[in-house]
Amino acid sequence: MATILETRALTKSFGGVLAVGDVSVAIGEREVVGIVGSNGAGKTTFVNLVTGYLKPDRGRILYAGQDITAHPPREVTRLGIARSFQIPQIYLSLTVLENVLIALAARQGEGLRPWGPLSTRAREAEALKVLEPFRLAEHASRPVSELPEGGVKLLDVALAGALMPRVLLLDEPTSGVSSKEKFAVMDTLVRILAERGVTAIFVEHDMEVVTQYAERILVFHEGSVIADGAPQVVLEDPEVRKAVIG
Amino acid sequence: MKPRTALSLVAAAAFGLAPLALPGWVMFLLTLALAKSVVVLAIALLLRGGLVSFGHGMFFAAGAYTVGLVMKWFGLQEALILTALGVLVSAGVAALLGLIIARYRGIFFAMLNMAISMVVYALLLKLYWVTGGTDGIGIRTPTILGMTPDRQNLRLVMYYFTLVLTLPAFYAVDRFWNSPLGFMLRAVRDNEVRVEYMGSSVARVIYASYIVSGALGGLSGILTGFSVGHIVPELAYWTTSGEFVFVAVLGGAASIPGPLVGSIAFEFLKSYASKYAAYTWQMTLGIAMLLIILFMPTGLWTIYDLLTRQVRSWRPSSKPAR
Fold first, then answer.
1. Which of A71, B54, B212, B262 could form a cystine bridge with A75, CB 3.0-4.6 A?
2. What is the pLDDT of residue B297?
3. Do A197 and A103 lie in a common domain?
4. Do B184 and A159 touch (CB under 8 A)?
């Protein structure tokens, strides 16, 4: 399996607190990787570093062999890495459909076009296709502010998916989603990502979700990766259980 | 036909037929209101992105002075060529300043615009051998498609000239707001982080919108210059820019007709207030503004929204009664 994303001795501190220290991992193409760890373990900081939101103090990030360490988020996104957020980042004054239409226009490189409508038939049909697996298509014309918390979370994931990335980083994709819908959404998400050949890296607290969907787990503890491997093996490790579950 | 299209056509027809029913002085006020509504529209355009400019007077002045100086130095008289030149120069000024200004938001964006506008004002004032200083520059009657309007019909011709350029500007901004860039500008106001994580540049979205807004500001200054026949440095003064923001809020910046409604209301309110309360007309405007903010926080165009909602509630429901 060819490596698509790699970090080498990635390090980031905030003041005197080491958030991520010397993290070196290699993620293969089409892999589904779960990142687990207790609060403050460095999971989100790692995602923020990889996607250009934060600049590392030391270390390198390689995407498909290209050094993307100093790249800002928009360049990282254009190269093919998209993300969703722990706290959803969406356009609250717009409708669900308009949110996705903007993402599609951005992906097609038409975000700066000052003429012609954003909402064309073809783009609208594609946007509905993006929303369908998340059961948001029926809410397409609703303002985002009217969506329940779980719906907002799913829309955030849908926006990242609409960009057709090669690597998708999902920060707690099922938090706020009802336990009834959680597995259905993950089933669909993982299936779509597999169909498209997307590498998925997701931060998750729910161990049931992690064990069911991740092929590989990275365990973060105090900024370092203390375990890396198949879920069945890693989660049996007493040290990991202590670090993750407490 | 959609109600919105029908309303636009009715409004265009009403403006077209207005000279048949209205006296000359009202036509002059209406010409001014139409001309200035374009710069108010430019302010409204940026407000969609959460950006307030207290310096659009500089684009207003850039357009007007381009026309004045080209007429003075080169003797060019053709209004359409002068207008195109003025709009190009204003867009160029916006393109240049936008390189710096597009990096700022909020109060910094507003104040930086104002600061640069005041520099432009000072230059127009001090470079009197070029700009005429406080005396300004007289704008001679232009030719339109090679024809010189006679004195008797001048007011009417300038009205139609202004109308013919104003209405397409409103149509263009309506299209702009529905375009990918227009929506991207709204997206910037809502969530800059997500815009960047869609692979778009927030600064570029603001920069492109700023150029469009600057060009509109210039067009407005040109039309005002042609209507009044005289331009002065005060066009770039900060109170002029403040007045544009005032009118945008008065009319309602969230809708396309808002700036036009606000501009007409403002010109007539100012005219009547200065006639009947010569020493306190600013206070009258202030009170009007307070009332608008209290009772119609989204501007005068709210009245239309309220009326259409009322009409809809009167219509019998198409669903059968249970």
1. A71
2. 81
3. no
4. no
Which one-letter amino acid corresponds to residue B52?
Answer: V
Chain B nearest-CA residue for A52: B197
Residue A128 burial (CB count, 10 A): 15
Q: Given CB atoms, is A122 within the 8 Å cutoff of chain B?
A: no
In whole angstroms, give the CA distance from residue A113 to residue B213.
15
Whether the per-residue pLDDT at B99 is higher than 80: the answer is yes
A113 neighbourhood in chain B, CB within 8 Å? 179-181
Question: pLDDT of B188-217, one tens digit each?
Answer: 999 999 999 999 999 999 999 999 999 999
Q: Are residues A40 and A94 in the same domain?
A: no
Please identify, among A109, A139, A164, the residue that sits at the C-terminal boundary of a domain. A164
Judged against a pLDDT cut of 70, whether residue B316 lies above it is answered with no
* Total residues belonging to chain B: 322
Question: What are B283-296's pLDDT values in tens digits?
Answer: 888 888 888 888 88
pTM: 0.91
User: Rounded to an integer, what distance in angstroms lies between the CA atom of residue B220 and that of residue B236?
Assistant: 13
> Which stretches of chain A score pLDDT less than 50?
none
**CA–CA gap between residue A98 and residue A147 (Å, rounded):** 14
Domain end among A164, A189, A218? A164
Does A103 lie at the interface with B, CB-CB under 8 angstroms?
Answer: yes
CB within 8 Å: A91 and B187: yes
For residues A205 and B180, what is the distance between their CA atoms, to the nearest angstrom? 37
Q: How far is B86 from chain A (nearest CA, A)?
A: 21
Q: Are residues A151 and A215 in the same domain?
A: no
Report the pLDDT value the prediction gives residue A245, as an integer from 0 to 100.
Answer: 67
- The CA distance from A231 to A224, in Å, is 18
Considering only B64-73, B140-149, B229-238, B307-316, which range has the smallest mean pLDDT? Answer: B307-316
Does residue A197 sit in the same domain as residue A228?
yes
> Is there a contact between A115 and B200 (Cβ–Cβ < 8 Å)?
no
Nearest chain B residue to A80 by CA distance is B199
Q: What is the mean pLDDT of chain B?
A: 92
Q: Do A68 and A11 belong to one domain?
A: yes
Enumerate the residues of chain B whose CB falls inside 8 A of the CB of residue A163: 198-199
Q: Which of residues 129-158 of A touch B (CB under 8 A)?
A: none
Q: What is the number of domains present in chain A?
A: 2
CATH number at residue A66: 3.40.50.300
Query: Do A150 and A174 share a domain, yes or no?
Result: no
Which two structure tokens, joined as six digits, stand for B277? 């309360």
Which position has the higher pLDDT, B119 or A183? B119
A100 in contact with B at a CB cutoff of 8 Å?
Answer: no
Q: What is the ipTM of this complex?
A: 0.93
Give the type of residue at B13. A
Using DSSP's 3-state secondary structure scheme, residue B280 falls into: coil
Which of A62, A44, A70, A83 is CA-nearest to residue A6? A62
Say whether B204 and A112 touch across the interface (CB within 8 A). Answer: yes
Q: Which residues of B touch A (CB under 8 A)?
A: 175-176, 178-184, 186-187, 189-191, 193-201, 204-205, 208, 212
Look up the domain containing A93 and give its range.
88-164
Among partner residues A93, A117, A119, which is closest to B186 by beta-carbon distance?
A: A93
